[in-house]
Amino acid sequence: MPVTRGTGWWKSRYLLHWREGSFLTCWLSLCAAETLLTCPSSCTCNSSSLEVDCSGLGLTIIPSDIPLDTQTLLLLNNKLTTLTGSVFANLSALHYLDLSHNFLDLLPQDVFRDLANLTDLHLRNNSIRALEKSLLQRTVLLRRLDLSINGLSQLPAGVFDDLTALHLLSLRSNRLQNLDRETFEPLVRLQKLQLGDNPWECDCNLRDFKHWMEWFSYRGGKIDGLECTLPKELRGKDMRMVPMEMFNYCSQVEDENGSSSVDQTGTPCAKDRPPLLSEPKAEPEPESSTECSQKQRYRPVSVRRAIGTVIIAGVVCGIVCIMMVVAAAYGCIYASLMAKYHRELKRRQPLMGDTEGEHEEQKQISSVA
User: Fold this and answer.
1) Superfamily name and number for 38-251
2) Residue 137, class by beta-carbon neighbours within 10 Å (0-12 exposed, 13-18 middle, 19+ buried)?
3) What is the pLDDT along the chain (369 residues), one digit of tens a residue?
4) pTM more than 0.85
5) Which UniProt keywords apply (predicted)?
């Protein structure tokens, strides 16, 4: 006979399943809460904004027990000198990272590799002297990047190629002397660029970047002043105010330097030249540095010719303006004289009409008589 199960058995079965489900739910909730509330010692954590503040604690290493769901991490005003490549490996949810006011020198090329959601990166006031080309390759959502007050003397080609969403870039107070236009062309959404307080050399090496600056300003971008330190003729002047005509001599200088550096005896690249018939065969020289394959930097000594051209153009424009003012004044005087003449003419016309009427009346009286 089949065994019949009563209502009590089904209730007990249902209560058992309900208890098991409740226990599992509570356990998962406790685990999640434990993960959320875990906070590094001495740091301040905000569970609502998912912010971890470890500022001003004198840290020499970054804590390893930072919650995995942290979105804002503040590590400014510490004593950090180096970062390992995996220090941010588990913080893929991070949006805002501030490492300002530390002693960071060299950043590993893969230190930001796992921060794909990062939008704000602040590295202000450190000792960074160089950047790796692939340092920011994975931070494609980055909108604000602050590299001010460091020791950067140059930027590697392609370091900003993947930052198409960048809106603000600060390179103030570094050791930059010139920049390449190609470095900034990928920044299609850039709105503000800060480049002040750098020892800019306003020579031919900065000519192409000057072209990019004018295009950037034309499309509405904001850029602060670039005060020239060299050459001495432009010292203290703002690069934005220097006219492009000042760089017209660069092509001529490059042609002259290029022609003078070809086939010169005694230069490092002269070993590639075939020997003349009158020259004895010399022993092959060891390979020199890569300077032979690279074009030398051209540093013009003076820009007096360009300054003279600007002065002459200004004088000519001034003479033309004076002539236009004289012509305008002559036109005004002529117009006033003509107006006065027409007013006098209109005033005399009624008098002339009355005289003619009197003559006609006299003629009629004489004819009647």
Assistant:
1) Ribonuclease Inhibitor (3.80.10.10)
2) middle
3) 455 555 665 566 666 665 665 555 544 454 444 444 589 988 999 999 999 999 999 999 999 899 999 999 999 999 999 999 899 999 999 999 999 999 999 999 999 999 999 999 999 999 999 999 999 999 999 999 999 999 999 999 999 999 999 999 999 999 999 999 999 999 999 999 999 999 999 988 898 999 999 999 999 999 998 899 988 888 999 988 888 877 777 766 666 666 555 444 444 443 344 443 334 444 444 444 444 444 444 344 344 555 667 788 888 999 999 999 999 999 999 988 888 888 888 877 765 555 555 566 566 555 544
4) no
5) Cell membrane, Disulfide bond, Ion channel, Ion transport, Leucine-rich repeat, Membrane, Repeat, Signal, Transmembrane, Transmembrane helix, Transport
